[in-house]
Amino acid sequence: MRTHISLAAMIATLAVGGAAWAKPSIRILATGGTIAGAQAGAQSYGYKSGSFKVEDLISAVPKIDELATLTGEQVANIGSQDMNDAVWLKLAKRINEVLRQADVDGVVITHGTDTMEETAFFLDLVVKSDKPVVIVGSMRPATAVSADGPGNLYNAVAVAANPAAKGRGVLVSLNDEVHAARNVTKTDTTSVETFKSINRGPVALVHTGQIAWFERMDRPHGKGSEFDVAGRTSLPRVDIIYAHANMSPDLIDAAVRNGAKGIVVAGVGDGNMTDKAMEALSRAAKEGVVVVRSTRLGGGLVLRNNEVDDDQKGFAASGEFTAPKARVLLQLGLTKTSDVKKIQKMFDEY
User: Fold this and answer.
1) How many C-beta atoms lie closer than 10 Å to residue 298's C-beta?
2) Four-way CATH pick for 3-224: 3.40.190.10, 3.40.50.1170, 3.40.50.1820, 1.20.120.1760
3) Structure pTM?
4) Could you tell me which of 185, 217, 202, 167 has the C-alpha nearest to residue 349?
């Protein structure tokens, strides 16, 4: 089932009925990224992320102020390859503060695409409001001949201003699609058609502000999530180890020596790895490091006790989650417990 709801339709309906219509109030929180990037020249392949401020991004989009009353602030100005726990915690704190304000109806976050899926999922689990939160970016810098940022930002504001976005958790809006933070992943290095929810598909389509909504996410998020980072100044260290042919245990042992509290393995196939790597992870698990098996593949599920005896080795299985998403959930899970059975329950539920 899908529903079509646009701001234009709502305005027309209210006008006919004689009711006064007040534009939604949307706060744009900027963190940098390609959407704020600038090339050295028109023919340049490379660019510098975070070259423009939030005010520049807003002013570059025609008629965006007809969708909502907009205000903006710069939370960070970095390429998302440099995104880190400190910025995550700062961003989560600020979003929760802003959404508690009665005069703010939703938030749009501008963000680089490289780690957008991780930031989105983190915020999906720690933002304690039903008000819309939409993350947006672009694959082309602001100075590109055919920059996709302005259109993406226009659509993101339309989504955040739409009443049907309420209670859907954090959403990611690019290339005329809207995805649930839990499901979305980047699939192409440079194409504008890069973000996909491989196992589930998008939650909406959006074109020039017109939105067709699909089914809601069926897993806990937002106020329904058990995770809360209020007052936290750091997150537990969790490393991802990439599996491959002839995989050595060296990087696993190094992660443990350097203080990793959790390890996610981007395993081959259904979360598998070499015998030597398996032995190293078993040692780590016995030392109290929480090990989660995921996959280096783009789709499918990593099922518990399938090929690997997770019960015997003390591992958890990631289920639907890719390695980057599994890392986010494990970081938050470790703020509450290091009991692998309880961690597995979180992966099953979320």
Assistant:
1) 11
2) 3.40.50.1170
3) 0.91
4) 217
| Amino acid letter, residue 310 | D
Report CA 188 to chain centroid distance, whole Å: 16
Give per-residue pLDDT as tens, 278-297.
999 999 999 999 999 999 99
Which among 160, 200, 155 is positioned nearest to 177, based on CA atoms?
155
Nearest in space to 107 (alpha carbons), one of 160, 174, 143? 160
- CA–CA gap between residue 33 and residue 147 (Å, rounded): 13
Residue 237, both tokens? 């260290």
pLDDT tens digits, 295-348: 999 999 999 999 999 999 999 999 999 999 999 999 999 999 999 999 999 999
Question: Is 226:253 a contact under the CB 8 Å cutoff?
Answer: no
Q: In this structure, are residues 225 and 125 in contact, taking their beta carbons and an 8 Å threshold? A: yes
Catalytic residue set: 34
Rounded to whole angstroms, the Cα distance separating 145 from 126 reads 37
Question: Tokens standing for 247?
Answer: 């995989």
